[in-house]
Amino acid sequence: MAETATLQVWDYVVIVLMLLTSTAIGIYYRFTGGRQKTSEEYYVANRTMGATPVAIGLMVSFLSAISLLGVSSENYVYGTQYAAVNVGYVIATPFAAYLYLPVFFKLQATSAYEYLERRFGSVSRTVASFGFSIQLLLYTGIVLYAPALALEATTGLSKTASVVSIGLVCTLYSSVGGIKAVLITDVFQSLLMLIAVVTIIVTAAIDVGSIGEIWRIADAGNRIEFDSISVDPTVRHTWWSLTIGGFFTYLSLYGVNQVQVQRLLTINNLKSAQISLWWSLPIACVMSLTTCLSGLAIYSKYHDCDPRTSGRIGSADQLMPLYVMDTLSDIPGLPGLFIAGIFSAGLSSVSATLNSLSAVILEDYVKPCYRWRNKEFPASKFAIVGKALALLVGLLCIVVAFLAQYLGGVLQAALTIFGVVGGPILGLFTLGMFTECATQRGAVTGILISLMFCLWIGFGQPKPAAPTLPVSVAGCNSTSSYDSSVTSNVTRAQSTGDSSDFYLYRISYMWYCPLGFLTSTIFGLIASYLLRFIFKEETVELDPDLLVPFLASRLRKRREKARDVNGSEFGSKHELNTYS
């Protein structure tokens, strides 16, 4: 069995230089400009950021190291159908840009969840922000741990060193440099991520002769698949699940998620923010499709000697670093450049978490505690407390990362929660922005039912294993302990599991977000009508600014017409719809 090369001195030099550069950017913004002394500068950069760095920041915030390793392995193991998810992203972009984003721009709040308090009340704000906080903290811990585990198994780089170095460096530059440092380092780190992926494609093309040959080998191995049109929701990936699921996933991330909304609010006007959101789309699609192609490039090397079947690696997520060590270890510093790209993907995701969770904790928990005591949180302490919270969140992420190794099979469940929570929260915001009749009691009832349902189908056990495409070890050397005739095979587009498995547990994970959205909105509306009747709640005026633009315009015109008819200033006061 072939031995895997390890990192050399020059590789570590490249990795250290990347970490030092990221740290230096944070220190620079700590001692320049306003020096991050106000919450306005620390969390939204005084709304002075340009569209380009924000567009790149939007892309890399959720393109974690897990995505970089996972999308490539997805195409290696399951084929190219996953690339269709980009169609859902394209369709969802105008919805996020022209319906959801204008509402947040009118609000101009640091926390996206302040909208929920103004629209419904404090309970809805607390429920949503708490769910978001737990979800993001768990996800970020896994973002730190999973790549570190893959790198340790394939490069010899210590798992502990990876987690601590990424966690501490990210905590340092995020806490001292604020959102400006986070966005500028995102630009630097995205370049390293792209270099890492392109390097794999180029070296594979040189090795086999051309990109066309990579495609031919993948096609011969049944990896090229764009024809899965089954309407069966238990089929893992189809055009329907990827397009619809991608649509709602994109909206949950780019339409109402604190991380992305906060980045867009660093721009001083709505039109520029919308341009930034549009620019992030091709950047994200190019990165996604390039990473998909890198999976086929890796397959071109291992198509006749699968490293998992031959026992060289234990999981598909280790394919990319294994390829780099097998192919590029003879070139000093190049494997280190790839590892720097993986680290950059981790840094960008963790820094997004630190800054956003710090803002949410300060705005949604610390400041309300002061108001409950009839006090105002001192403005002079905003930045200091914000930095302390970012530091605390960073340390918590490191702790969660180390605890992740004891979760065993729950690791995949911890990743699933990202989609499971996103759909219900999207439904809650949509109820507020797209309806005038939803009440707090109804909206909270809807999201709680939706969360319980999604957690049930997302975490319910036993989960059937997803079918994989054929692999072979026919080309492995004779020293392998595996029979060279070993292959595994499946039928395309089969459902996940047989009919004996509980149906809801067999539903593709791409449907979790749409289902969460639908159950949250439908039950929220039903509960609003029923509970309004039961508690005999009176309808109060709603601030038009809390609705999407076309509904806000219609509401204003209706009130103007009513004033003309009644000859009074009906509706002059913007009372909030705060049923409790």
Characterise the protein shown here.
The protein has 580 residues and is mainly α. The protein has two domains: 367 residues, Sodium/glucose cotransporter; 40 residues, no CATH class. The protein is 68% helix and 1% strand. It is built from 20 helices and two strands. It has a two-stranded antiparallel ribbon. It is globular. The C terminus is likely disordered.
What is the CATH superfamily label of the largest domain? Sodium/glucose cotransporter
List low-confidence stretches. Answer: 478-495, 569-580
Helical residue percent? 55-70%
- Assign the structural class, choosing from mainly alpha, mainly beta, alpha/beta, alpha+beta, or little secondary structure: mainly alpha
CATH architecture of the largest domain: Up-down Bundle
* Tally of individual helices: 20
Q: What is the domain total for the residues?
A: 2
Strand content: under 5%
Number of strands: 2
What is this structure, in a nutshell?
The protein is mainly alpha-helical and 580 residues long. The protein is built from 20 helices and two strands. The chain has helices spanning 9-30, 39-44, 51-61, 65-77, 85-107, 114-119, 122-155, 159-208, 211-220, 239-255, 258-264, 270-302, 319-328, 334-372, 382-403, 410-434, 440-459, 503-506, 512-535, 549-566, and strands at residues 471-472, 487-488.
